[in-house]
Description:
The chain folds into 2 domains: 6-74, Arc Repressor Mutant, subunit A, CATH 1.10.10; 82-178, Alpha-Beta Plaits, CATH 3.30.70.980. Helix content is 49%, strand content 21%. The protein is built from 5 helices and 8 strands. Strand 1 (82-89) and strand 2 form a beta hairpin. The model has no long low-confidence stretch (mean pLDDT 86). Residues 5-75 form the TACO1/YebC-like N-terminal domain. It holds the Pfam family Transcrip_reg. This is Transcriptional regulator.
Amino acid sequence: MSGHSKWAQIKHRKAATDAKRGKIFSKLSRAVTLTAKELGADPKINHKLAGAIEEAKKANMPSENIERAIAKASAKDGVELKEVLYEVYGPGGSAIIITAVTDNSNRTTNEIKHLLSEHGAKLGERGSSMWAFNKDGKEFTAKFPAQLSGGDIQKFENLLSALDDQEDVQDVYSNADIE
């Protein structure tokens, strides 16, 4: 035998898959906890919570994780999660809205600023990107699409990937139109 085993190959793929699922579960858990804290822990009354639970179930998040996230919302000694909104000037003049759920907004803001500076974007002041969007409930839709081309497309896609990997980031909305 040459020392190769099938398990060694599977182990590396499984570790990568498990890490990805862990990030997704962490984001979904934060969303469930925040929603339960805001509007109550009963999904029959809190329709926003019911939606967050449904989204978690679609991602195959275990029921005990969902229940733990709901329980965390009513715990007196639990960490205080809050939703933070960032307005960003993106590559090629695109406008970006980032929503995050965090227990430490200073840490999250610094991490977001670092990611933005690495990918050719800047954190803006309140209202600097909001003008480019309509707010429909909790969703943001672009009013004015920004055409990206060439190197800006690659910078934009790299930025989205980096933001997706950031644990506190929940949603990213942009007016970028990539063709």
